[in-house]
Amino acid sequence: MRNISLTEGNVRKILIDLTGPMIFGMLGLIIFNLVDTFYVSILGTEELAALSFTYPVVLILNSISLGIGMGTASVVSRAAGEKNVEKIRQYATDSLSLGVIIVFIFMIVGLNTIEPVFKLLGANETVMPIIISYMRIWYIGTMFVVIPMIGNNSIRALGDTKIPSIIMMVAAVVNTILDPILIFGWGPFPRLEVPGAAIATVFSRMITFSVAIYVLGYRDKIISFKGMSKNSVFESWKKILYIGAPNALVKMIQPLGVGMITRLLASISIEAVAGFGIAAKVERFAIIIIGALSVVMVPFIGQNYGGKFYDRIKESLKNSYYISFASSIFVYAVLLVFSNLIAGVFSDNLEVINVFNSYIKVVPLFYGFYGIQLIGNSFFNAINKPFEATMITALQMFIIFVPLSLLLANILGYLGIFVSLGISFMLAGIVAFLLMNKKLKEWYK
């Protein structure tokens, strides 16, 4: 078993070493989604809007997977900090079995609720057939999405961010190759349009599924069914879900928020939905540094919390704040300069471009605060305090963003929605910072 100790050595160097590969891994996921958006946008505005409507539902499954993955990373990293090999194997194995059960339930429910769910999101009769053709294929392939997400968190919890990143990059490359072939019918393949994008997604995820299982089972040998019993499995699930369930809720708040934004924008125009869909995809690239940093903070804090190295946790937080704000300032400047060019890649519709540009001028101003919010979520999940993480995100979305967006949308239109999102990032980031400082003071007492 490979276990890279994060409880010794230079803190800043370790964070950079962990975050670097993670950035490339997340870049793979971002390329994955941008490629889908780019090729589907060539088909037309209706197809692009249909794909934008699927985004909240796709995020819900990702949120559940990331929630269980976060619970897995928390318990495995703390076991690694305690040098307990038996617990590491038990938690890693039982997390995958939990993932299989969740996938089956999600797939059955999803396949039987496609039309009512997307009607609720505001999809009209024009885009509904396109949505149905995409989601039927996507739901069938959910197993290949969830299991690698959970398995990669076990690998990261042991201090290895390189292999999960390679797995994600492989998925991006395969998807990039298959998308135009299946969407437009290159060579001997038929023209499948939007369903072709779904098939490319499922096939590329099958490859990542195979690689993740190989690494977990054969390279690292942390999948083991020896000594398993109903009681031990339930005990593992309980510990994983104690972190995973609230964190899944936290992750699902984002797609629920995206769903609300989509619904509000749909009442304005279909172009507003399409413009926001592009912005949401580009944003994943824009926050890649703070997103990667927040992910690697879980194994770092978890291992040091398990070993009771509180000074190292304090130092890691100071470094993460600096990285978050410095990177967000750089990203905002780049987006302002290239916003028209970026929007033009995905659409030539003037209204779609205007919506995208409005988002870019407002929301990225607050990415530094959003980074602090994400770091706060990682901090509290890593130290087995998931409800504080839930509270921070619930505050941002439901107490601040939703009421404010409903108010400002009536005054400023879609611009009011974007301003509300930025303000919610700022206030939630401040609250996360204060709560983390309070917890640090408690430890030193």
Features:
single chain; 445 residues; mainly alpha; 16 helices
What is shown here, in short?
The chain has 445 residues and is an all-alpha fold. It has helices spanning 11-43, 45-81, 85-111, 114-120, 128-140, 143-157, 162-184, 194-219, 230-266, 270-286, 288-306, 310-346, 350-362, 367-382, 386-412, 414-444. It has one domain.
Provide the β-strand percentage band. Answer: under 5%
Largest sheet, in brief, is: none
Backbone structural class = mainly alpha
> What is the percent of helical residues?
over 70%
The pLDDT mean sits at 85
Overall domain count = 1
Basic shape: globular
Taken in chain order, the helices and strands follow as HHHHHHHHHHHHHHHH
Q: What oligomeric state do the depicted chains represent?
A: single chain
Give an account of the 3D structure.
- It is a single chain.
- The chain has 16 helices and no strands.
- It is mostly helical and 445 residues long.
- The chain has one domain.
- The longest helix is centred in the N-terminal third of the chain and has 37 residues.
- The model has no long low-confidence stretch (mean pLDDT 85).
